[in-house]
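agent> Task received from the user: take the single chain below, predict its 3D structure, and emit structure tokens. No templates, no multimer pairing.
agent> Plan: (1) validate residues, (2) run structure prediction, (3) serialize to tokens, (4) report one or two observations.
agent> Step 1 OK, no nonstandard residues flagged.
tool_call: predict_structure(input=
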Amino acid sequence: MDSIYTYYQHLKQARMIVSYTGAVDGELIDLLIQLSEHRLSNTAIKKSTRKKVINILVESLQNIYHYTQAYQTLPEVYDSPFVVLQEADDEIWLHVGNYVDQDRAIFLAAKLAEIEVMSTDELQAYYVNRLASLSPPPDGEGGAGLGLIEIARKSAKRMHFALENTDSEYKCFTQSIAIQL
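)
tool_result: status=success, residues=181
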């Protein structure tokens, strides 16, 4: 990189709203939500779209939080999350990611592949069915993919995911979600 100013110009041109990397806890989720709401409120983006962006951000951060809490003693996983909220020409992009173990990688790949092939109506029916059939999850477990389903619903299924190999036994799960302006 040539200089700090060059880096600043790059970030400005990329239209970053919020960017964060590191461990995620409840307090940090609140701070990232407040910062995102503040930054979005200073734009021409419609209030309904801002609300949708924040809802998707909350679901994404909660997914990361619930997964990484079991790894507090393993910094490689616990400190791996990242979040980038960015404005593009006609959409807002949310990019999130964190390290996951092999079992979680298999679960995520299967759940997201299942979601990708559903129509909007099928997704809505699946969400309602899952919501009605869920009993409270055991301690330390998430809501059986409800957050992923909610993200798909709110983003009109405009999302992509990847599971990439790392230098360790963990995979890096990344998800990019587009919200139409």
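agent> Step 4: summary for the user.
The longest strand covers residues 91-100.
agent> Done.
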